[in-house]
Amino acid sequence: MKIPRWVICLGAIITTILIGSFTHAQNKPVVMVADFELVDVPQQLKASLSGQLQAAVAATGKYRTTDPTVTRKALSEQSRQQKMADCYAEECLAKVGKALGASEMIVGTITKVKENFYTVNLKLVDISLLTSVNTVSEPCHGDIEATYGAIDRAVARLLGVDVTAPPSPPRQEFGALSVNTGVGGTQVYLDGQLQGTISQDGQPLQIQNVITGKHTVGVEHPDYQAKEQEAWVRPNVTEEIRIDLEGKPGKIIIASTPPKARVSIGGEEKGETPYTALLSPGEYRVQVALSGFSPQEKDIEIKPNRVLRLNVPLEALPGMEEQPPEVRRGIEREIKEKPRAEIKKAIGIYIYPLVSLYLSDIKGTNYGGGIGYRIIKYIGVGTQYAGGELEKDTVKGSASFLEVYSTLHLAIVKDFGVYLKPSVNYQRVSGNGIEKSGFGARGEGGVYVFFKPIGLLTGYFMSRDASGLSLSIGGYF
């Protein structure tokens, strides 16, 4: 099939136009459009206002603009390397523009001069020479919405062209927030950005020009736990946000004269003076009591992250005042030495009878007794003596031993547990004309139970020559 000549000619014309357009576009200089620097203008509007500047420059057809996303990333990285908060200095911007292949750059600021009056300032800069090509300042009367039109006019004057910017995206709608915690000095954040501090009289913080939609409101105070709360902002409405803070624990330090008094907080006994504890913020009733003295009560308030010190002087009861000085000193000394007295309660002497039943090659029974001394609550030492008739094979005789031992009691539940009792002894055996004596060792283990002041121990013993059951029962003091 033969293609008509007019079709071929039309295709050639279209191809020529497309190639020319592409070549023309490629020949356009590249300009980097930096984000606006905002002065007394809400920072959350930066992206929208800077986008309008980018669109207005592109609409002139004079330049190819750098990709705004790539530009922002490059500026952020340059700020990090230069250890600056933002890259607004022309030297910093020029380095990034040059790296992105731009020959010129446009920088600008929007300043709120007073209520309903703004200025849009733009500058066109030659990157290689770092000199200003042109600068303009466009005044703007009206609210923040009017600055979008002022941006278009400023670009037209800066580049010397008539700009008909493409239809702007739908204007953002705004509302406001009123944030209150009731605690002066609380810092308020909106989407992670600090907005201000609640006044010391606890009045709400007003945040204006908040874009409609969902936001995160955060609050921080040195004496309270940080909190965050979601908030929905509606157009032209001030949303009231109340965030109740939870205080950090406070510390209470209680001392008394004399010391070692019992401390109760909120009706619950806590310990003895001097006493220190962390308490949640709030009101409490504290009672300090000591035998022989009038108890003292006090209502207190624990404040967040604060230290409260109480020094409670105790008044002696009338009976105490009538006592001779040496008696009063003795009572007070007893109070001061109470911990030592509690240790002494764990120390005692015990006397017991002993029965040993042999079940090995040696058979028979020994009877005796002993005396022990408990050093601390679970460990003791002692000595015991036992003797009796024993039999091995056809040999009958008598045996006796004197033993020194240590004992360890391991409680399973109160007054019941297991014990271990290693010992060394001196024993003497005689029978059928044979007599011998010498030193030996014996190990014993079993269970114990105390029925104060009576104790019962029963276990199994082993030595080199014999083994069997042991039972002792006695009084513990």
The figure for the number of domains is 4
Coarse shape: elongated
Q: What is the CATH class designation of the largest domain?
A: Alpha Beta
Count of helical stretches: 8
Any idea what the radius of gyration is?
A: 47 Å
Strand content bin: over 45%
Q: Judging by the overall fold, what is the CATH architecture of the largest domain?
A: 3-Layer(aba) Sandwich
Helix-strand category: alpha+beta
Distance N to C terminus? 127 Å
Give a summary of the structure in a few sentences:
The chain is an alpha+beta fold and 477 residues long.
Write up what this structure looks like:
By secondary structure, the protein is of the alpha+beta class. The protein has four domains: 28-159, 3-Layer(aba) Sandwich (Rossmann fold); 174-242, Immunoglobulin-like (Sandwich), CATH 2.60.40; 250-323, Sandwich (Immunoglobulin-like), CATH 2.60.40.1120; 348-476, Porin. It has eight helices and 28 strands. The protein has helices spanning 5-27, 46-59, 68-82, 90-99, 147-159, 318-322, 325-336, 338-345, and strands at residues 30-33, 37-39, 64-65, 104-114, 117-126, 131-141, 174-180, 187-190, 193-197, 205-211, 213-221, 224-233, 238-242, 250-257, 262-265, 268-272, 275-279, 282-289, 296-302, 307-313, 348-359, 362-374, 379-392, 395-413, 416-431, 434-451, 454-463, 467-476. Strand 18 (282-289) and strand 19 (296-302) form a beta hairpin. The chain is elongated and about 140 Å long.
SSE layout and pairing:
Blueprint: H1 5-27, E1 30-33, E2 37-39, H2 46-59, E3 64-65, H3 68-82, H4 90-99, E4 104-114, E5 117-126, E6 131-141, H5 147-159, E7 174-180, E8 187-190, E9 193-197, E10 205-211, E11 213-221, E12 224-233, E13 238-242, E14 250-257, E15 262-265, E16 268-272, E17 275-279, E18 282-289, E19 296-302, E20 307-313, H6 318-322, H7 325-336, H8 338-345, E21 348-359, E22 362-374, E23 379-392, E24 395-413, E25 416-431, E26 434-451, E27 454-463, E28 467-476
Parallel strand pairs: 1-3, 1-4, 2-4, 7-13, 14-20
Antiparallel strand pairs: 4-5, 5-6, 7-10, 8-9, 8-11, 11-12, 14-17, 15-16, 15-18, 18-19, 21-22, 21-28, 22-23, 23-24, 24-25, 25-26, 26-27, 27-28
Helix pairs in contact: 2-5, 3-4
